[in-house]
Amino acid sequence: MKDNNKIKDVSMTTLGGVGEIGKNMWVLEIGDEMLIIDSGVKFPENDLLGIDLVIPDFDYVIKNKDKINGIVLTHGHLDHIGALPYLLKEINAPIYGTKLTLGLLEGNLKEHRLLKDTRLKVVNSGKKYQVGSFEVEFIRVNHSIADTCALAIHTPLGPIVYASDFKFDQTPIDGQVADFHKLAELGDSEEGVLALFSDSTNVEREGYTLSEKVVGETVEEIFRGARERIIVATFASNIHRVQQIVDAAFKYNRKIAFTGRSMINNVDIARRLGYLQVPDDMIVDIRDCSDLPDSKVTLLTTGSQGEPYAALTRMARGDHYHINIKKGDTVMISASAIPGNEKFVGQTINKLYRRGANVIYEDVSGVHVSGHASQEELKLMLNLVKPKYFVPVHGEYRHLYKHADLAEKNGIPKDNIYIADVGDKINFSEDKVSKAEKIQSGDVLIDGLGIGDVGNIVLRDRKLLSEDGIIIVVVTIDKHGNILVGPDIITRGFVYIRESEELIESATKRVERALKDCEENNVTEWSVLKDTIRKSLNNYIYQKIKRNPMILPVIMEV
Amino acid sequence: MKDNNKIKDVSMTTLGGVGEIGKNMWVLEIGDEMLIIDSGVKFPENDLLGIDLVIPDFDYVIKNKDKINGIVLTHGHLDHIGALPYLLKEINAPIYGTKLTLGLLEGNLKEHRLLKDTRLKVVNSGKKYQVGSFEVEFIRVNHSIADTCALAIHTPLGPIVYASDFKFDQTPIDGQVADFHKLAELGDSEEGVLALFSDSTNVEREGYTLSEKVVGETVEEIFRGARERIIVATFASNIHRVQQIVDAAFKYNRKIAFTGRSMINNVDIARRLGYLQVPDDMIVDIRDCSDLPDSKVTLLTTGSQGEPYAALTRMARGDHYHINIKKGDTVMISASAIPGNEKFVGQTINKLYRRGANVIYEDVSGVHVSGHASQEELKLMLNLVKPKYFVPVHGEYRHLYKHADLAEKNGIPKDNIYIADVGDKINFSEDKVSKAEKIQSGDVLIDGLGIGDVGNIVLRDRKLLSEDGIIIVVVTIDKHGNILVGPDIITRGFVYIRESEELIESATKRVERALKDCEENNVTEWSVLKDTIRKSLNNYIYQKIKRNPMILPVIMEV
After folding, report:
1. Most Cβ neighbours (<10 Å): which of A102, A239, B179, B250?
2. What residue segments make up the domains of chain A, in order of their start?
3. Which region is the signal sequence (chains A, B) (predicted)?
4. pLDDT at B480 over 80
């Protein structure tokens, strides 16, 4: 197999997804050929004020766009496909993924008016595809979205197995267990697996992740017990979860209404592609729910993360167009709070209780199961694939660290394990794994239609503005530097003017005096005047009420 | 006991602490006499931009200040005593609390220069005190701070038992188990307990909360295994936790350094008052740690919540003055993340790992135990006290709801349970509990030295500013409304100017054209000009980049 005379360089470069949760993207290179694996978004942390999305810095792939043979996708979650609309504005390459993955991507591309020019290639798991000069196998695994695959990509040094995200569900809803045989075959082959890239999300959890079927049992119990309306919130992309809720509704002779944009879209796509079975006559429009007896109503909604404008959050707040929560309603939040969302979810639960609903959530076992492998599954993956090298992916630093530790305890030599940082180009050779170089990489911030036009300075200003607001001081001067009008002080986000007239008045006097000093000393440079205004106000305001508003002097010369 | 001829009204009014976590404060009234129970702060939620603290609206007690007999305190946590410096600016009353509670309060009052004029009365648990016309018993319970008491306050209708916060620790560090006998005696008395107010924080947890001693075992194991420095972060007020770490350090022949302002203060107060035993020669200054072998060093630090400026967070970030985290360090975070802080704690852990530390945190059992009672303890409290009426306190709505449910299952009739909202004045009579009235109440926001000068308008502006920044448009006109200078556009927190010159230029042209239209139509009213500027920009900016910055027109007339 291996042609030792002219072995080509094999490298994997990460543009995101390590040391962070989100924006998963890797580039495989063999010699001069490139293959992109996934291209996801990251949701902004709290300190990224006003930012809508974060995508990878595409510099490296743009520079090398002629080398790109194609893009292969593991599954349809936004942290793996959400950056493609931005990437496809820069490069043009065929995209390979399973039917549901591409179905979801299509919806995304349509919104960006990019669908027409994109070459989408549907693949089947269990099959091998030629993507330019790359041979890629799509291997069925389980996850919280249907049609998820691990990848085996063949290189002159043996196949690389990329398994992010996955779990092993022994009793999956669609009956499709992971392709253990293929993974075992790769591990057993004479050539051996060169490297395994594996999901680290749940490395801190012992044992096995529960089967999706467990949720079905809880759902059924809830449906059996409920006498009035049942409202279930879950991730719109978790088609198997949706199916289980539909099945329970069917069994207990209830109709079902879908609400929330992404829920309606995903259900539509999944039904169209055959991933979700809902009899037409079961579905009612949310506006018609009130015509049915409460005992016949099921609502499936977005908002499981307490997102401020999602349907369930609106219901909890009492400003949903069609649904008023009332005593007797059973609300099931079939999801766990993503780190950072705990407060929002908690607030939603409190509000639902206040409106009289019976709320069933996380703390009840079986309301939700994770889509990521726990320790025993991670070990099983290692033992099936038996890779020479190991790279933990899809996790914050501590997850990668612990996954590396787990792999070492499972027999991978420490030197054969690589904990990557975003931007690392990792070289694989027959005798070692090492960093080849660091490429330009990082977060590109999306705000509205702007891509990358918000950076540190803008964010720093937003933070300043958010904490103590802004004081604007306007002065009109003549050509000789004499003050004609002002100084006028205008504030926003600083204090209630009504309560602070005195403060503003005395601050204005301060600035007047400081400017008069300048005048008397014949200081007319604008920069000095501005500095004088800034300093005199800064000190005064801080001393008076211990705040640091942004101070913006504006000088107009007539 | 009960004088049926002239029974006085008995009521409890909440100024905070129900339907929220924090700012616990109640007012007991018997006839015309008032007693204040606790007066705490709440830490601001994320949406309270720039706010430092939240305190109760004191309107009700200020209006009735002549009726106030005194203030009684249950324990020294800030959510029970932190608002006193603000309250004491408005009213003057003696304050009763145990030694440690008042010791911690003293520090707080000193910072506000209020200590001199305050009457502090040290009480002992197990004793009865006359506070004006009120008879108050302080009853020992366990909690995550030493010297915590429940209160029994005698009324003509029988005693009210106020138990927030508490747990029952059967093996407490100081050997002082809760005063079960007193609680039982109250429950057994012929008169009977009128009402129980009880801690709802952990009502969602089954079973018993683990004993503080469990943490000691984990701590010892860690000390036994560690070869180099040990750094422990915990809540500074958890003196028993601190004691256990000191004990382990002593046993393994290590010195100890304290870092972080509140840690140093609390250790100092606790040692001085006899609540914490640390041999003098064990303590080293943090600056001298580097002179010791790593195997002799223990550091006890603040920062268990990932607070941006706390000592541990600085170490993780690499900007602590004296301590650089290095390979071999063991860092133990002996606390659980308070809801909302999960992300910050996670970030700190990741950074510590990156610096090579071995981090031990929440997921390891026994690293932390809660200070609040779980279901079995809550039931025990109900069964000991056997109250006629029950009011769940100290919890978000869902906690109060579930605690009410638990009490009902424990035999309290539904009609005898009252779930309170902030501002409810609850009347107790021999045959029912009911709402007497709703008093003025709510959140007063503290920003810097300002008390209540930041309200909804200011917060709304800060939110707007934080999301898309501000565009300021300045125009100078003459007396006839002709434009002399401008329009000039200045932005902050909006976009990188360098990248968006074109946008700003074309926006300026837009405003120019709109103003010219006004000029041609002889429109000179400032309000119309401002509106014109606002609208022309708003639409243009949104259409161009889908953002909604605040737009602030400024007109100067020369």
Report:
1. A239
2. 10-207+370-447, 212-360, 456-557
3. none
4. no
CA pair distance B538, B471, nearest whole angstrom: 10
Average pLDDT, chain A: 92
d(CA B71, CA B119): 10
Which pTM value belongs to this model?
Answer: 0.90
Domain A10-207+370-447 has CATH 1.10.287.1080: no
The architecture of the domain spanning A456-557 is Roll (3.10)
Mutate to test the interface with A, among B206, B331, B333, B350 (most CBs of A within 10 A): B350
Distance, CA of A452 to CA of B499 (rounded, Å): 9
Q: What is the mean pLDDT of residues B394-418?
A: 97
pLDDT in tens, A526-551: 788 888 888 889 888 888 888 889 99
Give the integer Cα–Cα distance in Å for B256 and B263: 13
Ordered alpha helix ranges (H), B56-123: 59-63, 78-81, 84-87, 99-111
List alpha helices for A410-500, DSSP H: 456-468
Q: Which of A179, A199, A329, A468 is catalytic?
A: A199
Q: Tell me the three state secondary structure of residue B6.
A: helix
| Strand B443-447 with B33-37, pairing | unpaired
Taking residues B74-90, report their average pLDDT: 96
* Residue in B339, B397, B453 nearest the CB of A500: B453
HSE-up of residue B106 (Cα within 13 Å, Cβ side): 20
Provide the phi-psi class of B493: left if phi over 0, else alpha when psi is between -120 and 50, else beta. Answer: left
Cα(A398)–Cα(A406) distance, integer angstroms: 12
Q: Per the CATH hierarchy, to which homologous superfamily does domain B10-207+370-451 belong?
A: Ribonuclease Z/Hydroxyacylglutathione hydrolase-like (3.60.15.10)
Written as one string, the DSSP assignment of B219-257 is HHHHHHH--S-EEEE--TT-HHHHHHHHHHHHHTT-EEE
Choose the catalytic residue: B57, B199, B329, B424: B199
A493 contact residues in B (CB cutoff 8 A): 49-50, 458-459, 461-462, 464-465
Q: Check whether A368 is labelled as a binding-site residue.
A: yes
Test B50 with A469 for CB contact under 8 angstroms: yes
Using a CB-CB distance cutoff of 8 angstroms, which residues of chain A are in contact with residue B530?
Answer: none
Conformation bin of residue A456: beta by default, left when phi > 0, alpha when psi is -120 to 50: alpha
What's the helix, strand, coil split of chain B in %, to 5? 35, 25, 40
Q: In this complex, do A550 and B492 lie within 8 Å of one another by their Cβ atoms?
A: yes
Q: Give CATH superfamily name and number for A212-360.
A: Metallo-hydrolase/oxidoreductase (3.40.50.10710)
> Residue A396: which of B346, B457, B467 has the nearest Cβ?
B346
Contact A558 B485 (CB under 8 A): yes
Give the residue from B48, B453, B473 with the most A CB atoms within 10 Å of its CB, the best one to mutate.
B453
Look at A359 and B398 and tell me if their CB atoms are within 8 Å.
yes
Identical fold between B212-360 and B456-557: no
| Chain B residues touching A462 at Cβ < 8 A | 465-467, 469, 493
Sheet of A53-56, strand order = A53-56, A443-447, A450-451
Residues of chain B contacting residue A112, judged by C-beta atoms under 8 Å apart: none
Q: Is A199 a catalytic residue?
A: yes
CA distances from A166 to A12, A178, B198 (A): 20, 9, 45
